[in-house]
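Continuing the batch. This is chain 6 of the set; chains 1 through 5 are on the previous pages. Same settings as before, nothing changed between runs. Recording input and output for traceability.
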Amino acid sequence: MTKLNKQGKQAAIIAAVLIALAVTCRMLGNNGFYPKTLGLVRSGIYIFLIVAWGVLIDRRIIQTQIRRYMIGISGVMVFWFLLRTWKHHLIPAEAPPDVTRYIWYAFYIPMLMLPVLALFATVSLGKPEQYRTPLPLRLLWIPTVLLTGGLRGGFRDRRVGVGSHDEVRVRQDRSRCLSHRRKCSDYRAGRLLHPYHRDPHKD
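Output for chain 6:
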């Protein structure tokens, strides 16, 4: 027990030091000091901490059901951080818009899976080792998969439809600019007159 407590304290100290290092990288990056490099370092630190947490769970939790769900949660969190790192640090500015959209919609996969896995792990707490998640709870995967498929369908609709919100906003801005230019040209040509003034050419 003493050895386990000592190892737990050492792990907590190492985690605290790594988190402090990640916060320092964020502060330096926000001040313009190698933001891309320090952003990658910070993401690597967090991914390492999540993987280490999953390894500790695999070694210390005996109940098979909870262990599987917790390892699944750690894997989904690593996937989430990889998406975040790819989106903010690895995609060049000249990348096609579809790449950013794919990554943006991929964020919904961990956002939908994490609550379900956390619920399953919570229900399994305190249960015997042979316990299995009841079928009504496992059916929650169906709406999760359907929501993910609906998001993919929405992505396809947006590709063949009017486009993204950014594209619509750009089109609106262009139409305003064209309207403003047309009014300016009409004013210079003398075609925009005050309503109380009459055009002498029409008399």
